[in-house]
TrEMBL record:
Region annotation Disordered: where it falls in the sequence: 30-52
Annotated SUPFAM superfamilies: SET domain
Database matches in SMART domains: SET
Domain of life: Eukaryota
Pfam families according to UniProt: SET
UniProt signal peptide: none
Ranges of Low complexity composition bias in the record: 30-46
Gene (UniProt): LOC110415138
Name by which UniProt lists this protein: Histone-lysine N-methyltransferase ATXR4
GO CC, alphabetical: nucleus
Residue span(s) of domain SET: 51-303
Length: 333
């Protein structure tokens, strides 16, 4: 399970002052969360070692991520590229439509339409944009904007990827779904209707959209609901966690949302030992907040840890469907 939004808090800043450590990036690579394309010139010995972690069942919280070796405070545990990402509608003219990197605009000017930060992102976006630009998304975007919904945008992008053949329709099935009430399901129907209508009006062949059923739409949205990360860019280059945390705290607003494979297996703790950060784009970095011993579970905080215990419990119960029994909550802190 993973956070809908992650906020840095002042509680962690004092801890960061005592754990300065230069980070060594360890890339995570698999068929689901590829961070770096394979290099044909690389030899097995020259490739980065896999991160010192494994996914296993926990006693009470389903799957979790555990250390397979000692991880030092401040170390970068692994990085991950998103399975699917999408910029916020409010940021769509100011960030790269593919990687969500902020794009500099000249004073007094305002870009219209989507843009890309580089040719590589423009080329990479073809996995969804070649399909997406065939349709008119005005009604769908207005629905998301009016209802204050951000996750249907991720479903739209994933659907375009499936239509283009770049993704399997069941790519997110491994992720844990949220429990949906009948009221929630009924509210999702309008988004499904608008998505289906946009593809139909664009004359996308029916055999390419056969996966797009109400059941598929609802199931994907149920998984995105509790596995999506809000992307708050820290910006710049940071050599220690203190300055990185401070930059994250000062970030003005989210530039978009994304879902990942491996980071979605991290469980929650209100006093976490691991932190997820975004520096310049939607590529996530998982960093150790303090020393982590072999066999210890790695946990992140899904919400703003500076809130009171009652507030945290309320948000976790309503937004994620569980009661937190971490040591901090049990002590009433």
């Amino acid at each position: 399970m993973s956070p809908v939004g992650l906020s840095c808090c002042s509680r962690w800043l004092s801890r960061f002052k005592t754990i300065y450590s230069r980070s060594t990036v360890v890339s995570f690579s698999s068929t689901a969360t590829t961070t770096t394309p394979p290099n044909e010139n690389e030899t097995p010995s020259s490739r980065p070692a896999p991160p010192p972690i494994r996914v296993a069942l926990t006693e009470s919280a389903g799957r979790g991520v555990f250390a397979t070796g000692r991880i030092g405070a401040g170390d970068t545990i692994h990085s991950a590229k998103p399975l699917v990402s999408h910029p916020s509608l409010s940021a769509i003219n100011t960030v790269c439509y593919y990687c969500l990197k902020k794009i500099q605009t000249f004073s007094g000017s305002q870009r219209q339409g989507v843009s890309f930060c580089c040719e590589k992102c423009k080329e990479s976006s073809k996995v969804f944009y070649d399909v997406e630009k065939k349709a008119d998304w005005l009604d769908f975007d207005d629905y998301c904007r009016t209802e204050g919904m951000k996750y249907p945008l991720l479903v739209k992008r994933l659907a375009c990827m499936v239509i283009s053949g770049a993704a399997q329709a069941n790519i997110v099935d491994i992720l844990q779904p949220a429990s949906l009430t009948q009221e929630m399901i009924l509210k999702m129907e309008e988004g499904f209707r608008l998505l289906q209508s946009a593809f139909s009006k664009a004359n996308i062949r029916k055999e390419h959209t056969s996966f797009l059923t109400k059941q598929w739409y609802t199931a994907v949205l149920a998984r995105i609901r509790i596995n999506a990360f809000r992307i708050d860019l820290a910006g710049g280059v940071y050599e220690d966690l203190l300055s990185l945390a401070a930059a994250s705290v000062e970030a003005e607003s989210a530039v978009g949302n994304a879902i990942y494979m491996l980071p979605s297996f991290y469980n929650h703790d209100c006093d976490p030992n691991t932190h997820i950060v975004w520096i310049e784009n939607a590529d996530a970095k998982l960093k150790a907040l303090h020393d982590i011993e072999e066999g210890e579970e790695l946990r992140i905080c899904y919400i703003d840890a500076s809130m009171s215990c009652d507030a945290r419990q309320s948000i976790l119960s309503q937004g994620f469907g569980f009661k937190c029994n971490c040591l901090r909550c049990l002590s009433g802190d």
